[in-house]
Amino acid sequence: MQIIELTEAEFDKLMNRLDKVEMEKDGYIPSEEDVFDYIEKHPEKYYLYLLWYSEHKPKPQSEEEKKNLKKILKVLGIFLLIILVALIAYLIYLFASYHRIPDNQALKIEKTSDGTAAADTLTTEKEYSALTYNVGFGAYTPDFSFFMDGGKSSWAKSKESVESDIQGAGELVASKDPDFALIQEVDLNSTRSYHVDEYSILKDTIPSYNTVFAQNYDSAFLFYPFTQPHGRSRSGLALFSKYPVTDSLRRSFPISTSFSKFFDLDRCYSISRVPVDNGKELVIFLLHMSAYGNSDAIREAQIRMLSADMEKEYEAGNYVLCGGDFNHDLKASEKDAENCESWAYPFPREELPEHFSFCLDNLSDSEKDALWDSARNADMEYVPGVTYTVTLDGFITSDNIECTEYENVNTGYSYSDHDPVYMKFKLLDE
User: Fold this and answer.
1) Cβ contact 130:231 at 8 Å
2) Which entry of 91, 203, 257, 387 is 20 to 30 Å from 168 by CA?
């Protein structure tokens, strides 16, 4: 007889494994007394079985259990098939519905209804004012963080919050009383902003202005992020002018053609014309350039296109004012690029055409350093001294315009992740 020695611990371990397990051939459930007896009678078979069992830990199934498992697997398979079909259908919908808003699109000019706009033409050597403001689709209360910046939320906190933020932003603009207001991220009908018509709120809050709207976002329904799908969006750029706008055109920026195009805006700028009493025109470029670390090729293509259009207007003898959200660090130089965030690359000044410059470059180094940063990173709630801040917003002017005053308005990002930039200027009589 072959003797197999087991320690007490090994025996207890085996008994725990064998508890209520029916042996394949013998058809019984062994008791503690039976185990030693069985080991003595069938040492080879039983020892090998125990070794196999310890490796594979089989779980015998009844016929009923096997049938139930098949049913579960069948239901699971059908469920996975439905998900796969739905995913394919959604991708077809996403690609089929994608479109770019036409380039060189004539824009509708809405004249003020109360007839209280300023004179018909601008005058040289007279001081005017302009303000640019990205209102962040009414979502960015100071405690708001955005998922595409690394934050949490895809939608604004509530419809009431959106209405309050846009109303507050509009009242802030009204308090500065600019002759021209260049406003970005104005939603018309978007899931993320509870379908609030923000353009209408602004027009009611800032009356006595002629207005022009250029759409730069018309997306299909986006099911990302899955916890709070971004949904469908219609949004754009709004120009408010106290003076008559005779013509306005939408130009489409070059953008990425990769899958990221579904999540990015249909980047653009508007070109609006205001007559000057010397027969020339003030040509206002309102823009919102690409963000989120887009490629150097896209960045360079956008700057080249913008520069070419601005230069064309200057060569025609016109005055050029370009403002908006440049999505570049306007304070930094390219030598500081390593210390900048990828989504806030220094604007390459050398790419600007001759006769053009940023207004803030007229400031001294100390004045520039003292400027309030016009934007905060939305990867977290705003915490002064902790949250990353940067100046993304500003103005470019041709050299026949004199900047007489420049201010980054400090509200502590009360209504948006951006604060307004305000300037005064004169059209030079040359």
Assistant:
1) no
2) 387
The total number of structural domains that make up the chain: 2
Cα atoms in the Cβ-side hemisphere of radius 13 Å centred on 42:
12
Domain limits for position 252 = 100-427
Element (H, E) at 144: none
Query: How much is the pLDDT for 219?
Result: 80
What torsion do the CA atoms of 175, 181, 185, 189 make, to the nearest 10 degrees?
90
1 in a domain, yes or no? no
Q: Using the Cα atoms of residue 7, residue 12, residue 17 and residue 21 in order, give the sign of their dihedral.
A: positive
Indicate whether 50 and 168 sit together in one domain: no
Reported as type and span, the H/E element at residue 324 is strand 319-325
Radius of gyration of the chain (CA): 33
- Scanning the structure block, which residue is given the tokens 């207005």? 211
Whether residue 15 lies inside any domain: the answer is yes
Residue 246 CA to residue 254 CA, distance in Å, equals 26
pLDDT of res. 75? 82
CA distance 69 to 71: 5
pLDDT of residue 82: 86
Residue 175 lies in a domain: yes
Identify the pLDDT of residue 78: 86
Q: For position 417, which CATH number holds?
A: 3.60.10.10
pTM: 0.80
- Burial, 135: exposed, middle or buried (Cβ in 10 Å; 0-12, 13-18, 19+)? buried
Beta strands in 79-205 (DSSP E): 105-106, 109-110, 127-134, 180-187
Q: Are 239 and 365 part of one and the same domain?
A: yes
